Amino acid sequence: MPSIRLSEVTKKYGSTRAADGLNLEVQDKEYLCILGPTGAGKTTALRMVCGLTLPSSGRIFFDEQDVTGMEVERREAVMLSQVYSLFPHMDVQQNVLFGPSIKEWSEKDCNRLARSMLEMVHLSNRAQALPHELSGGMQQRTALARALASGSKVLLLDEPLRALDARLRIELRKELRSLAKSLELTCIHVTHDQDEALVMADRIAVLRRGKVMQVGTPKEVFENPNSPFVANFVGQSNFFTGKVVSKGEWTIVEDQRGVRVPARPCDMEIGEEVVMAVKVGNTRIKSDEGFLKGTVERMLYEGSNVHVDLVLCDYLRFSVKMPNRKIGEFEVGSPAYVSWNPREALVFPIPPEGLEEELKVD
Amino acid sequence: MSILKTVDEISSRNKVRKGWFGFILIFFLVFIIFPSIYVLLFGISDWQTLQDNVLSNPDRMAVIYGALFNSFGIALIVTLIDIIVGLPMAWIMVRKEFRGKKYLDTLIDMPLAFPTAALGFSVAIFWSVPVSAPVPAGALGWFADPLMLIILLHIIFTYPYMVRSLSAILEQIDQNVEMAGMTLGASRFTAVRTITLPLFRAGMITGFILCFARSLSETGGTYIALTAIGKDSLFFTGPTLIAHLKDLEGAQNVQAELVMVSMLLIVSAILLLFIAKYAMSTLRIPWSKVWPRWERKLSRGLVPKVKDGFSFFFMFLFVIIPSFFIFSYILMPAPEVFDWSGFFSAIMYSFAVAGIVTVADLLLGVPFAIYIARNSRGRLGRLLDSLVNIPLIIPTTALGFSLGLFWGGQNLIQDTTVLVILAHIAFTYPLVVRNVAGAVEEVDPSYEEAARTLGAKPFQAFRKVLLPIIKSSLLAGAILAFTRSLGETGATIAVHPGANTVPVYIVGLIRSDQFYMAAMSSIALILISFLLMFGLRHVTRSRGDQ
Description:
Number of domains of chain A: 2
Number of helices of chain A: 11
Strand content of chain A: 35-45%
Oligomer: heterodimer
Radius of gyration of chain A: 24 Å
CATH topology of the largest domain in chain A: Rossmann fold
């Protein structure tokens, strides 16, 4: 019944820190997604959990037992990577049975297991195929079957869907999650794709520069981000910087030019410098009324939605997702108003390194 | 099975892995690198003796300088000729399609499969005037001058390297770049010279270094060719001077000279390696000026045809025919006294040595190769990666002499067979390491990592996952090492002139004017090497198919 805990884990490569005092807990049978931009240290975190990388300092626990220095093969934490790493000289069945054959299962048990695993991932008729004869999706499923057949109760997924094409990726999200749930696995799934994380995770840990920024359910992380970075990385946001000028039913923020916007109530004092953030998806566009007036600068057709970039009050840049049916109401250059439900607008203290630095995804 | 299991089990312990690697590293340093260059240390620590016996003796120094001058001069001339004739040939091999190309491809590599001793003999009787007649009909006998003969011989040794290095790069160069140049108005010759050739830099330098180093260090074939024309005590290259001095060793004290020559050869070889590394990263081909009219003329009509024709002519007359000429001995009448027993005992001895050497190379070279492949970014990995090349470029006679001095001079090892085996391991070890390291580098480490997370112990991950993937390269390395050991003359003579290996046996036959028997032994050795090389091709071919 594996729960996993990382305590103050740090990994240094020269002067860069791929993990910088990581603290993270994964409950038994939980599906946790680690979400972060490229280079945030997601893969390093995963590799330290299974033992392929040793932390420079800090400790890792499985079921509260210290496994920091334990050999990879004894941890029973199986890794499924984005390149799958199917052994090229073995066919599908041999690949799937690699784990059991290491443990010297009897041939009868092996065959039975192989049958059930291949059935589960719909590859029964390709058991004798070599990896390079399979499509990307099949390779992915073979790798999954191989990981599951090893009997490990911890499944580590390093961008497992990345190499697949878009439609398949979306289909496999559901399949992967329900499989993990039905087998009662503890999963850590690393991804840079926020949609994937939102759909699949029980909880999401947002990682940046080797640090955990926020941990919570998809709903918490999406709706109540604890920093402008998370607000922008999990569902793009529009930002407005200014000072708190009044508190009451709504917080009112005013910038240097006297432009005012409403947001949800907050603990900040009147006069404090703040950043207001509202999700692009929660920002509305109208032709007649709203909080801020501006002009349409660019329209990107996305199918059911249209992405609209606006310049407000001659200097603010906002983006809006507009339903396709309203496409006739605006064109580039036409005047527009934006508004939002103030309950969905969050107020953060101004980040110490400035907003631009805070939002960087490097 | 239980041994495997025990190894599996203990491989899981970090300390065991560290200990094993430490052992491999110590083996490499103590048995391969240090003995190979020990003579440098020996010479420096005993500089006074060198001063008294060699440096202060103008006659002796003149011989040494003369030999080195010959070595470098020959290497330079040969390499330049190789570039001039190798480039059009590489071009033909990569860019042209024609019937029989497959066979030509094999033919180019043939000289590499010849044991150097056999090749030296064949070339000597074809081009030059051997001491013992009769030679088979068809021999040209044009060049009695040893310098000419050695140049012609070394062209055969080096030509395949040049063609191969150039065509390897040529294959990688995107033809579209050249096409773009031509659509922009350049003639083919201009486009090739100004666009493709500069991209070629790495291939040119690799080819240059390979050929130069090969020519500089070639001993066996050179020594036998010189012996066959009776000039082995009159004309020297650096490596053959060692062989010659080694021959005199019983009668007079020549150790100081041996030390001197070996030191100079080793230092120049190592310098060459560094210059090569430096040149790889910095050298540029400066030609960007164009002469459109002349170059257009060179691109059309007769010129390209003449160029191609000349490439084929050169290859056949200077490379293929002299190599195979030795087979014409089959048509000669056999002498009355004719005995294979000497050959058989020599071949048994050679096989035993080569077999032991190959097994040792594999056991101790594969872990080393894996280490340098997996740590190619680390400082130690890079250092070992360069160090392992040293025995490859040092002339084998110098290496053999140094190694004999190290083990024998201290009375550490007396047994000559053991010394011969150690010497052969020293220059074949890098072949195995290079081949295997190259293959391991191509294998994504994630395979072994996946195996580990699936529960495999390190040694299980190696033998069930990595080993099957690199199997063919491993076998290729083993065959190369075996063949190389089988055909080696120089190192063996330098360690123990009386060793009963086939090449040394052939040298002995030539010396005692038994040319027919020498030819037959050479042919037998060639056929054995061909069989091995054929196996090698088969192995590497099937790797390509995967």
